[in-house]
């Protein structure tokens, strides 16, 4: 899935070049060769050869191309490698938590949690292939997803209690299962690369959770 307006070749491709360690090692080899050549070959004083060797090392470090540290690489506009890794890890953890809830729940609840786990996995895959999605889903990841998980886990805990009233469980269960269509719309916006729709769906989910006070 390619982002609209992205330059050919993809903004997430790491720049070519050697690692910093390899570049420094090559510069050291060049400096050593220069020192030996000037001291032994040209007969310069050792201190003069050493100074020129140091200058060769400094120049080689600047000239030899090297890669930037991975965490500083921009994968999309306003999205670094560190941002992307954190988001992917959070989505993977959320998927696992939903899967565990599906194992504890029964009937329609179990199906809903399995569906949400699957959707979170799909959303993770979309973010991995198109980091540009992360620009508009940050609020979902930082605020709404944690509250969604907390609400779902609280509901499953409530359902396991012997004193939980059937009427209350029905209301809370309906609210939790309402997260499924919200996640489906977010996942669809990622598939269609519709940034406007993604932004709208994240806002709608936020309003949906806020209306419940963040509780199940």
UniProtKB/TrEMBL annotation:
Keywords: Membrane, Transmembrane, Transmembrane helix
Transmembrane segments: 21-40, 46-65
Pfam families referenced in this protein's UniProt entry, alphabetically: Halogen_Hydrol
UniProt xrefs under InterPro entries: ChloroindolylP_hydrolase
Protein name stated in the entry: 5-bromo-4-chloroindolyl phosphate hydrolysis protein
Native source organism of the sequence: Rubrimonas cliftonensis
